[in-house]
Write a structure and sequence with these properties.
Length: about 190
């Protein structure tokens, strides 16, 4: 399937999820994240979910990271340049939704991309080879190419892998893992 078709398919599937489904599946995903071999790392980048898009609720993973004393990094997006600026999440971080309902830090201590060890990646769909389809704006593709090669990229999805995403580009960065309520894919 093409990314455009996958986006439509998975947005529709997400819209069918109840709030209870969303919370239960998000918790199940977080419980599977515990088993990943990433816990010796220090700097973890995580997305704050767009509730209106019914994204995986990362609150449970945030609690895990906090409980393991990890450095948690969140981003602010610049829609003019398609750049993301990364900030350390602290008790003093003020979060505000932007015009696209993305919760973002207002400001804070900036963290350079090369420090990031693990990235939890939002997505709409992924395939059995580790390619992903997001919303199509390219923010994460650009960000992931700026990360060091050994940065671990973990997708989070309510749904299982598609066989193949047909229109992948050479600058699309593949995932290392994708976690779903039913299991963990390793690429």
């Amino acid at each position: 399937m093409l990314k455009k078709e996958l986006r439509a398919k998975y947005k529709a599937l997400r819209n069918q999820l109840s709030d209870e489904d969303l919370e239960e599946m998000s918790l199940t995903i977080a419980n599977k994240v515990i088993a990943l071999p990433v816990w010796e790392k220090t700097y973890f980048h995580i997305f704050l979910p767009i509730a209106e898009q019914k994204e995986v609720n990362t609150e449970f993973i945030l609690h895990l990271l906090s409980g393991k004393d990890k450095e948690i990094i969140i981003s602010k997006s610049d829609f003019e340049t398609r750049e993301m600026t990364h900030f350390l999440l602290t008790d003093n971080t003020k979060i505000k939704k932007n015009q696209y309902n993305i919760p973002e830090p207002v400001d804070g201590l900036e963290v350079p991309t090369h420090k990031i060890d693990v990235v939890f990646v939002p997505l709409l769909a992924f395939d059995k080879t580790g390619h992903r389809a997001g919303y199509g704006k390219g923010f994460y593709d650009k960000f992931l190419t700026e990360c060091k090669p050994e940065t671990i990229k973990i997708g989070l999805s309510f749904f299982e892998a598609e066989e193949n995403i047909e229109d992948v580009f050479e600058n699309d960065v593949k995932l290392d893992y994708c976690v779903t309520p039913n299991g963990v894919y390793q690429f």
